Amino acid sequence: MSISRRLENLPVMRFHYSLLFWVGVGWLFDSMDTGIISFVLPVLMRTWPLTPAQISTIGSVGLAWADNCLWQLPWSVNFHQLPNGGGFWSC
Questions:
Q1: This prediction's pTM
Q2: Which of 22, 38, 66, 80 could staple 33 via S-S, CB 3.0–4.6 A?
Q3: In the 8-state DSSP scheme, what is residue 70?
Q4: Is 43 within a domain?
Q5: CA distance 36 to 33
Q6: Is the pLDDT confidence value at 83 over 60?
Q7: DSSP assigned state of 11
Q8: Containing H/E element for 5?
């Protein structure tokens, strides 16, 4: 029996639904930072007199921060070595 046939014959169990749920939650939060930035930047452009270069810098920094900080696993961070005393959100 091949691997693909074996995978096709496996029953869908509670684990698979749980995995599907948590992947969906991860996808939701991954797209939420992009959505927030895409809705906030036009408001900032109307509210503050910013140049297009400044707006693009704000968007790039926001996405880079979200990419590098929000998705760090809490158990992979050594909080005792962080300069400001630590915390999950203190990148």
A1: 0.44
A2: 66
A3: I
A4: yes
A5: 5
A6: no
A7: P
A8: helix 3-9
Average of pLDDT values for 14-31? Answer: 86
Q: What is the distance between the alpha carbons of residues 16 and 7, in angstroms, rounded to a whole number?
A: 12
In the numeric block, which tokens belong to residue 70? Answer: 């929000």
Which residues, in sequence order, are CB contacts of 79 under 8 Å at separation 6+? 85, 86, 87
Q: Which amino acid belongs to residue 55? A: I
- Do 67 and 37 form a contact (C-beta atoms < 8 A)? no
Q: Is the residue at 86 inside a domain?
A: no
φ, ψ for residue 5, nearest 5 deg? -70, -40
- Give me the number of domains the chain comprises: 1
Domain span holding position 53 = 3-81
Contact 34, 63 (CB under 8 A): yes
- Element counts in the chain: helices (H) and strands (E): 3, 0
Is 87 part of a structural domain of the chain? Answer: no
Q: Tell me how far apart the terminal alpha carbons of the chain are, to the nearest angstrom.
A: 49
30's tokens: 């991954």
